[in-house]
Amino acid sequence: MRIVWFRRDLRLSDNDALTAAVRSGEQVVCVYVHGSSWPTGRASLAWLSASLEALDGSLRSRGSRLVQLTGEATHALKTFATRFNASDVHCSRVWTPEGLTEERAVADALTEAGVALRVSEGQLLAVPDAVRTSNGRPFSVFTPFHRAWLGAWRPESALPAPARVPSPEVTPEKTASAIPDATERLRRWWTPGERGAQERLAAFVADGLASYDTTRDLPALHGTSELSPHLTFGEISPRSVVSAILAEHGEDVAAPFLRQLAWREFAAHVLLAHPETVSRPLRPEFEGFEWREDAQALDAWKEGRTGFALVDAGMRQLAETGWMHNRVRLVCGSFLTKDLLVNWRRGEEHFRETLVDHDPASNVFNWQWVAGSGADAAPYFRVFNPSLQAARFDPDGAYVKRWVPELGTDRYPKPMLDHATARMRALAAYEALKRTGAPPGPRR
Q1: I need a surface site. Which of 110, 168, 363, 403 has the fewest CB within 10 A?
Q2: How big, in percent rounded to 5, are the helix, strand and coil portions of the chain?
Q3: In whole angstroms, what is the distance from residue 324 CA to residue 312 CA?
Q4: Tens digits of residue pLDDT in 58-76
């Protein structure tokens, strides 16, 4: 018997680990282990619940089911494999520092029990070892990374889902899991699971990709793929996405979206090279930055009560849907870290809790980028003006009106600060950081 250990690959199509197990000709038991450090936020945990339900349904239609275990993966998998006399455990690699540590620990534990761990790829188009500078080091700037990344992989056809997953006649019962059920609100906006991912991809290829480069920054439109949560949970593979895109469009049309996939993978590569950036700035001079502690301002930002309509619209969209348009994420991030001078970690923590597409690498990377402390970061002196951003990317106010319907009435708050003054304060802090390596004095 063989075990397939699902991790961040909650799909049947283009799943190398599952395909290898089925092709062995032996019986296969599919498991998921609750107890890893990912995911942790309430929104992503709710998504996980719905995604596992969908995966179980897909397996049942093929003569199998999903067995959910709890506890540390090393103990849970070793105990399970020993109990059912499994010869091999198949899984997909998770390219995060914690994922690789978990993989090594599981491999050691299984080896002690005489069971082999067989690891497949599928999370990234280009694994980190394949994308290096000329002297063999990880990239820290996106443009040369992008060039190397494009040459590190080639388009391939995605694997079909197995028609049947041969499983033992008596499959162990599901172990109860301590995760919340998907909320009605989540299902109103999304269809978690592989079917939902494939539907999103098909719609994007048919109606969105051709205009992607001109509409992706317009939050009132469905100008982006909205595939991010499906990619985060591995409900669809990057290889499947690229295969579908290139089957319908030429490389010139696909290039702007492929660049976004490269940005996603750049974040993963940077976190692997610098695991400390989960909590510390990549640029060491930012260690001394004395961010403002302002609980009231932070709460106003979280709740969409800043008085800046585009910021408030984005934060309300996040609270309602578990997702926020990418352009608006930049504006909201800049407002927190530049206008309010609140630590980027506070924003990262809030997004970790509320995003359905929370990805450990991308979330940390993007927050450090907008704060100016990370790899290839936006210069600290780039301070987005929320009003100008709204005028440029939401010119008729359709996005803002949808999420801030009380705008223009007495119920909507006045701006909590003067942006021009806040910008000058941020620039002064940056100039002090350049001169001395630390900003001038604590801020209140």
Answers
A1: 168
A2: 50, 5, 40
A3: 11
A4: 999 999 999 999 999 999 9
CA distance 13 to 54: 13
Determine phi and psi for 115, rounding to 5 degrees: -115, 140
The helix (H) or strand (E) run that includes residue 69 is strand 66-70
148-155 average pLDDT score: 96
Residue with token string 């979280």: 302
| Cα–Cα distance, 257 to 276 (Å, whole number) | 29
- For tokens 């107890």, what's the residue? 35
Check pLDDT > 90 for residue 174.
no
Domains and CATH numbers, the chain: 2-122 (3.40.50.620), 124-157+196-273 (1.25.40.80), 279-436 (1.10.579.10)
Contact 12, 58 (CB under 8 A): yes
Spatial neighbors of 301 by CB under 8 A, at least 6 apart, are 311, 315, 332, 335, 336, 340, 342
Burial class (CB in 10 A: 0-12, 13-18, 19+), 379: exposed
For residues 247 and 265, give the distance between their C-alpha atoms in angstroms, rounded to a whole number. Answer: 22
Single pTM value for the model: 0.95
Q: Confidence band (pLDDT; 50, 70, 90) for 437?
A: low
Give the Cα separation of 149 and 200 in Å (integer): 25
Sheet with 66-70: list strands edge to edge: 66-70, 28-34, 2-6, 88-92, 116-120
Tens digit of each residue's pLDDT (9 = 90 or more) over 331-376: 999 999 999 999 999 999 999 999 999 999 999 999 999 999 999 8
DSSP 76-130: HHHHHHHHTT-SEEEEE---SHHHHHHHHHHHHHHHHTT-EEEEE--S-SS-GGG
